[in-house]
Design goal:
Blueprint lengths: L4 E2 L20 H14 L4 E3 L9 E5 L11 H7 L3 E13 L3 E7 L2 E10 L2 E7 L5 E7 H14 L10 H15 L9 E2 L8
Parallel strand pairs: 1-9
Antiparallel strand pairs: 2-3, 3-4, 4-7, 5-6, 7-8
C-alpha cells in the first residue's frame, strides 16, 4: 500500500525517533509498504518519520543512482542492487574530508541544495530479520544512509544549510508545508488549509 509522505513542517520530522523491538507489530507489512511508497515517489531512501512514525527505521535502494554516466563502472556496480533495511541504526564513525553533493528529499519536494558530508561511515544496525550488522559504507551509498539516518535523529538536510541558504528557501519551504506545490506522489501537508 502506498502511504502518504509527510511534508516538512510536521513535528514528526523533528523528533528523535525511538528504537523498536523484533516484535514490532506487522513489521513485514510496514517494510513492504515503505518500499512501495519509496518506489512510487522515485526515491532512493525513506525513513519511518517520513510516513509519520517516530521509530528508528529506514530503508534504501541506491539502484537508480547507478544510471549516472558521470560515475565509474565500479561505482555504478556498487550502487546497483544495493537494497537494505536499517533498524535501530547508529553511525559509530564518520571519516574523511567532507564533500559536497546536491541532495533532495521526498518530504521537501523541488528543493535541492549542496550538503557537505563525510565520505566514509561505520554503521551498526539490525536488518529486517533483526540480525545485527556492523558495516563500513562509502561514497553515494554512505551519503544516502547519512541522509536517512538524519531523519531518525530529527534532522532534515535543510537544517545543514548555511543561514543564507535557509533564508533563500524559506518561502518555498513555507509553501510546501501548506501544500502549495504539485507533486506526483501522495503527501500529507501539516499546514494545509482545511477545505470546508
Amino acid at each position: 500500500m502506498i502511504l502518504p509522505i509527510v511534508a516538512i513542517g510536521d513535528p514528526v520530522l523533528k523528533k528523535k525517533a525511538v528504537d523498536i523491538t523484533k516484535d514490532y507489530p506487522k513489521l513485514d507489512v510496514l517494510l513492504e509498504n515503505m518500499f512501495e511508497t519509496m518506489y512510487n515517489a522515485y526515491g532512493v531512501g525513506l525513513a519511518a518519520p517520513q510516513i509519520g512514525l517516530p521509530i528508528r527505521l529506514f530503508l534504501v535502494d541506491t539502484t537508480p543512482f547507478a544510471d549516472d554516466d558521470d560515475l565509474t563502472k565500479e561505482e555504478q556496480d556498487a550502487l546497483t542492487g544495493f537494497k537494505r533495511v536499517f533498524i535501530n541504526a547508529k553511525i559509530i564513525k564518520e571519516e574523511g574530508e567532507e564533500w559536497s553533493f546536491c541532495e533532495g528529499c521526498l518530504s521537501i519536494p523541488d528543493v535541492r541544495e549542496d550538503v557537505y558530508r563525510k565520505p566514509k561511515i561505520t554503521v551498526e544496525y539490525y536488518d529486517e530479520n533483526f540480525n545485527m550488522h556492523t558495516e563500513v559504507f562509502d561514497g553515494l551509498i554512505a551519503r544516502v544512509i547519512q541522509h536517512e539516518y538524519d531523519h531518525i535523529e530529527g534532522v532534515l538536510f535543510t537544517d545543514l544549510l548555511s543561514t543564507l541558504k535557509k533564508r533563500l528557501i524559506k518561502g518555498r519551504i513555507g509553501n510546501i508545508s501548506k501544500g502549495k506545490i504539485n507533486v506526483d506522489y501522495r503527501m500529507r501537508f501539516p499546514n494545509a488549509k482545511k477545505k470546508r
